[in-house]
Amino acid sequence: MSIESSEQVLDYPLRAPTALEPPEEWAKLRQGCPVAHVRLPSGDSAVLLTRYSDVRQVLADPRFTRQLGKDGAAKLSEEGGSVFETEEAASLTEGHERWRRLLHKSFTAKRVQAMQPRIEAMADQLIDDMVRQGPPADLVAGLAFPLPVWVICELLGIPDIDRDKLAFWSNAMLNMSQYTRQEMEQAQVEFAQYMTAHIAAKRAAPGEDLLSELVAAVDDGHPLTERELMMIGQGILVAGHETTSNTIAKMMAMLLSERSRWEQLLADPSLVRTAVEEVLRFDANAGFGLPRFITEEIEVSGQKLAGGTTVICNMAAANRDEQAYERADTMDLTRSPNPHLTFGVGPHSCVGQALARTELQTTLNVLLRRLPTLELAIPSEQLARREGLLIGGLERVPVRW
Amino acid sequence: MRVIVDLEKCCGAGQCVLLAPKVFDQRDDGIVILLDEHPPEALHKAVREAACVCPGAAIKLEEQA
């Protein structure tokens, strides 16, 4: 390990008392130990950053690389193979400028806004099914899990009948605790086969979707290769499904766990935009954070980090930094401006954030309109976390109305 | 108020377009287009919010200009 210290080494990820509350250590770390030494599930060492200013600085600094596959970088888990460590992650970094530029065509604010009526119709359709079956229902299975897959299928021009297959592969590719390594690899193979055929079909008969556009796109005089198209498809699924599903579920749990929050939105639905930003800021169960690796000495919070250090940026802890926010520990649905770090910052910040925001806002608007009497069917302390290393979620959000 | 955008820092998140569509737009590749360098006062609040939440810190404001 590159840093000398006699202080206590914490096991990371830190455990929180309930699914909606932050780990007790966050406040202490932000105050007294902004560069904390942690032991990852793999047993490897890293340093953890929890202050807003530090996390913001590091994520915007290209010397903090995403090359977690490099010699000397900490492995996150025993098994390895996480989305941060794969060959794809490394090559995505190399070709980052190019594929990001191409992806942006589909994720500009205006194009995403143009998708909004379709997203609203999908949310209505899913809620129709929930209403038909009657309460109680699980908001995860009924709405939060399927909606983002439906949206991604729409983006990629994948027919409605294949939505369930996509949802299964996506879940298996990312969820390291629920599926075995073998099932994960099997899902990757099946998804790759499906996408190869799908890309060929779009080449032969282009549609109105993103994939057809990318197939036809020429960037710097070069069309995209089969492999690049595949990686974009997989990237969108991995980056856009579980994250958004989990956030929809956590959003509803947070808003329903205190009745006054839901009532405030019912009384004034124009608060939906700022409420969604506050949900993103306030999410204590956001997951692992973003790992970075440095190859030279860099100073953070007055401490020198040696080359060869792996740094974990915990955006959720930073989002509750009292130095950055007034009443940081209070959920304020009117908070504005709200420059939270949930989507990252700088050149690697989430390319799909306008789409994520639109999905969250639309889901919330439709639920307020359709099910104003919505309430949790269990006490919020009993909500069970969805186990998975990278992205925090909830197993179920039982509701009635 | 004078608005200055830094195309190098812009990461195409589109927050500014959502908040102040009369002042900001995006190119095809997501990079910001400044539509109004001196926005009217009614838009100042939205423009300030856009500058504050920009993940690339690509929007600078000269309030006295």
From TrEMBL, chain A:
Any Pfam family: p450
Keyword Iron: yes
Any one GO molecular function term: oxidoreductase activity, acting on paired donors, with incorporation or reduction of molecular oxygen
Keywords assigned by UniProt, alphabetized: Heme, Iron, Metal-binding, Monooxygenase, Oxidoreductase
The UniProt record lists the keyword Secreted: no
InterPro entries: Cyt_P450, Cyt_P450_B, Cyt_P450_CS, Cyt_P450_sf
Needed cofactors: heme
Gene3D superfamilies in alphabetical order: Cytochrome P450
Family: Belongs to the cytochrome P450 family.
Record's protein name: Cytochrome P450
From TrEMBL, chain B:
Gene3D superfamilies linked to this entry: 3.30.70.20
One MF annotation (Gene Ontology) recorded for this entry: electron transfer activity
InterPro entries in UniProt: 3Fe4S_ferredoxin, 4Fe4S_Fe-S-bd, Fe-S_cluster_ET
SUPFAM superfamilies referenced in this protein's UniProt entry, alphabetically: 4Fe-4S ferredoxins
Cited PROSITE patterns: 4FE4S_FER_2
Domain 4Fe-4S ferredoxin-type: 1-29
Keywords: Electron transport, Iron, Iron-sulfur, Metal-binding, Transport
Entry function: Ferredoxins are iron-sulfur proteins that transfer electrons in a wide variety of metabolic reactions.
Alphabetical list of PANTHER family matching this protein: FERREDOXIN
Stated name of the protein: Ferredoxin
